[in-house]
Amino acid sequence: MRLETDSEKLRRRNRELSILNSIAEALNRSLALDQAFVSALAQVAELFDLQTGWIWLLEEKGGDSYLAASQNLPPALANNPRRMEGSCYCLDTYRAGDLDGAANINVITCSRLRELVDGTDGLRYHASIPLYAHGKELGVLNVASVDWRELNPDDLRLLATIGDLLGIAIERARLYAHSAEFGAIEERNRLAREIHDTLAQGLTGIALQLETAEALVESDKGRERIFKAIHQALTLTRTSLDEARRSVLDLRAASLEGRNLAQALSELVHSQSLEGSIHISFSIVGDSRPLPQRMENGLYRIAQEALANALQHSGASQIVLQMSLAANLVRLVIKDNGHGFDPEAIPRDRFGLLGLNERTKLLGGILHLHSQPDKGTIVEVEIPL
To answer: Which domains occur in the chain, in start order?
Structure first.
């Protein structure tokens, strides 16, 4: 067996340091981890001549695992998101504390690929690298190869360093997200107070004045037209006051009101089903993957509005709400078996569809509308992560 020369060692070390530097730069370039993770996985694959890799993170509150990023997943996993849900052997081992440091980075038979024959690209094993920050469990980095070689001490130390870089970046991004969320809550409360102190109180005063005027002219039959005008003004004012109060509530508490997106959608479907005779079903894949608060609120509003449109206009007996959260895409589908319509001849007063499209664009996504007369309607929203 040929020994590595000093010049070969130096070249290998320089290459390793160069890739570590690239990974560190990618992780420090942005507080949005998705792209940084993909870049880090690509660099790790190049460094160790690997085919694929993925990163599991543990949710901060519940500790559930979710797929945060992936690189070249084999078709059997990429085309079947449910196989990348829930726990597995390496995650269970990690939670049990058996992957406590570089010395215990091991090559493991992937339990998600074990029973598959087709679509695995020949992959069977992966190395699991634990991710920690100040002793707190964050997740696991998996890297896989068809023909896995034994990891030497240098490989172990290098993978441990990469894991440390990932752990630092994850903790930094989460701390920033917490501070941004706190700032958003403070701003919502400030706006709520401002609306309450100005618009709501002003409308209340107008309503009181109009109620007084209405009482004065109500007995005077000669002023029927004045009474009618004042009555209409009073109705409009009351409507505006209700809207102002609703806006205050929306600002003081986000749509989800402390629930995660899956819980909020499940409760929405349950409440809508109780109100009518239409059967509404709901399913979600990847519900343990956390999303930014703004995106969760937006997706909830889109689902809420799409359900309201279907209930009001479709004449359907069944509505299906489906959501899938992958590492790089969120897909929301609402379909009904109603009478459908021609998308090219949507009436101008159908503001619901306009609102759906605007909300989707604000999240950087695309809305697809499929409908035909007597063949139901499918609304599909895709939001890239």
So the answer is: 6-179 (3.30.450.40), 258-385 (3.30.565.10)
